[in-house]
Design a protein that fits this description.
Strand content: 35-45%
Helix content: 25-40%
Oligomer: single chain
Distance between the termini: 39 Å
Number of domains: 2
Structural class: alpha+beta
Number of helices: 4
Length: about 260
C-alpha cells in the first residue's frame, strides 16, 4: 500500500530540502546529534568478552562474563548502570511511532535514500537533520509518521516532515537499554578502570549474537503490559481493603511516591 497521495504530496512540499529549510533543521538538530554521538572507549580501559549466564536479583542483573583472556568475571547491572544494547532487527521494527535514525544519501533532485536504519526501542527526544561527511549525505532522526514498503515519512521537528526512500536490501539495527534483552552468548564490552584488583565498570555495551524479530519482541512487550495491568488491578483491590481498615490513613504511601517519581 502506497502512502496516501494527498499526504505524500503535502509531506513532499514540506520536505523539499531547500537551503533555507535544511539550514533551519541543522540549527535545531546540531546540539542534539552532538549529544547523541557516542565515542569509542579507550581500549586500555575496557574489558571485552562474552556473557556466560544472566541471573536476576530483584532489579539487579548479575552477568557472568568470560573475558577474551579466558577469565570469568561478574558484573552487576542496576537501573543506574549506563547501558546500551545493540543488535540486528527486521523490517517489523520500522513502524509508525518508532524513533529512527539513518544516514541518507541525497540525490540531485533532493530525494533521500536510506540503506540502514537504527531504531531506538526506548525512544529518544532527539529530532532533526545534520550534514554528513559529504554534501550528499544527511543524518536524519525522528519519529516515523507514515510508512509503506518503499518509503517512510519522518517527523524531524522544526524542519517539518521528511520523506526517506527505502533502498532495496536495507538493514535494520536496534538499540535499547532493556535488561530483558540481555541473553547468554551476547558479546559485551565494559568501559571503566581496574580498582583494587577488580574492574569497575562505568558503562556497559552489549552486542546481541542473534537478530531480534519484531513479532516476538512486541508480543513480549504486550505480555508484560498485560501482566503489569493485572498487578495494578490487584493493588487497587488491596488499597480499597486497606482504606476500610485504616480509615483516613494512606493505603500505600510507596505507591504515591512512585507516582510522583513517574511525573
Amino acid at each position: 500500500m502506497m502512502l496516501r497521495s494527498h499526504n505524500l504530496r503535502q509531506a513532499m512540499r514540506y520536505s523539499a530540502m531547500t537551503a533555507g529549510l535544511v539550514a533551519l533543521a541543522l540549527l535545531a538538530a546540531e546540539s542534539a546529534f552532538a549529544q547523541n554521538k557516542t565515542t569509542k572507549p579507550d581500549p586500555a580501559n575496557t574489558l571485552a568478552g562474552k556473557i556466560k549466564s544472566v541471573e536476576k536479583k530483584g532489579r539487579t542483573l548479575v552477568l557472568s562474563i568470560e573475558t577474551e583472556d579466558g577469565e570469568t568475571v561478574e558484573q552487576l547491572l542496576t537501573t543506574r548502570t549506563p547501558l546500551v544494547i545493540k543488535g540486528d532487527g527486521d523490517s517489523g521494527f520500522l513502524r509508525r511511532g518508532a524513533v529512527v535514525y539513518t544516514k541518507a544519501y541525497q540525490t540531485k533532485d533532493k530525494k533521500l535514500f536510506g540503506k540502514e536504519f537504527k531504531v531506538y526501542l526506548d525512544g529518544s527526544r532527539f529530532r532533526g537533520v545534520k550534514k554528513g561527511k559529504t554534501d550528499e549525505v544527511l543524518e536524519v532522526m525522528g519519529v516515523i509518521t507514515q510508512l509503506d514498503k518503499e518509503q517512510m515519512a519522518i517527523n524531524i521537528g522544526r524542519g517539518g516532515p521528511g520523506i526517506v526512500q527505502l533502498e532495496e536490501g536495507y538493514k535494520v539495527k536496534i538499540e535499547s537499554a532493556n535488561h530483558a534483552l540481555i541473553v547468554p552468548g551476547a558479546g559485551v564490552v565494559l568501559a571503566g578502570r581496574p580498582t583494587r584488583g577488580r574492574f569497575k565498570a562505568t558503562g556497559v555495551e552489549v552486542n546481541l549474537e542473534n537478530p531480534l524479530t519484531a513479532e516476538k519482541y512486541f508480543a513480549a512487550q504486550e505480555k508484560g503490559s498485560k501482566r503489569g495491568r493485572r498487578r495494578s488491578r490487584g493493588s487497587s483491590t488491596a488499597s480499597k481493603s486497606d482504606k476500610k481498615s485504616e480509615g483516613n490513613a494512606v493505603a500505600n504511601p510507596f505507591a504515591e511516591i512512585d507516582k510522583k517519581k513517574d511525573k
